Amino acid sequence: MNKVQTVSKEALAVLDDKIQLIQSNQGSIYLVGPIKLPINLYGETVVFQWYCWLQTKEVKEDIHQIIDKLSSANLAELQQSSVLIYGDFEHQEDALIRMHSICHTGDIFGSKRCDCGFQLKESMQMIVDHGAGALFYLANHEGRGIGLFSKAMAYILQENGYDTVEANESLGFVDDSRNYDDAIQVLKALRSKPVTLLTNNPKKLAALIDAGLPISGRTPLWGDVSEFNEAYLQTKIKRSGHLEAEAEGTCPNA
Ligand SMILES: [Zn+2]
What we know:
The chain has 11 helices and 8 strands. By secondary structure, the chain is an alpha/beta fold. The longest helix is centred in the middle third of the chain and has 15 residues, at about 115-130. Bound molecules: zinc ion. Zinc ion (ZN) binds next to loops.
């Protein structure tokens, strides 16, 4: 939807201190927020602070110019990433973070082909229980970065005997093309102290450390535990040293 008029002075005055510019080698990130977001988490209402960001190649310091430019860009066709903050994220000594890769089927539809939907909710609950943290929802990470249409094709291949890696590679994609640079820049704008990463995936931990995320530790995020599989999972945790790698191995996003 395109606007014909330029942004009003009144709106600019409201937005001026709610949009910050983060400059990087790759261009700039505009971070808008915080916005109060009450969320239904397992039947309880929990208030998070929500921020959304937009990455562009050019740098414009004047937010008037940015907003005017946005109105002519077809942003609804391109997904933007965002982050939910809980507690005193900037100052609390230890904060939990989750870098959650978007999973349309798991997060929105509750698909049981993967446990992404469960991990999304569970990580939010763990952050709340911890007292401070952030959930980064990374919109350009669908299907380990191959996109939704390609993920659908990969699922068909998987139904025909391919594993996740083979399916992605036979479609011409590298197995994992996710990039965390913009999320890390945003994190650094919101907090300078190190963070504890919520993940079961040692490769993701290594990728984030390589990308410059200041990490003080890692907390595992167990899979879809229910009355049906809890005893089984507990036994595996106690008796098997390699559940970590398996636990996030069920989804193309893991
Ligand atoms: Zn998933």
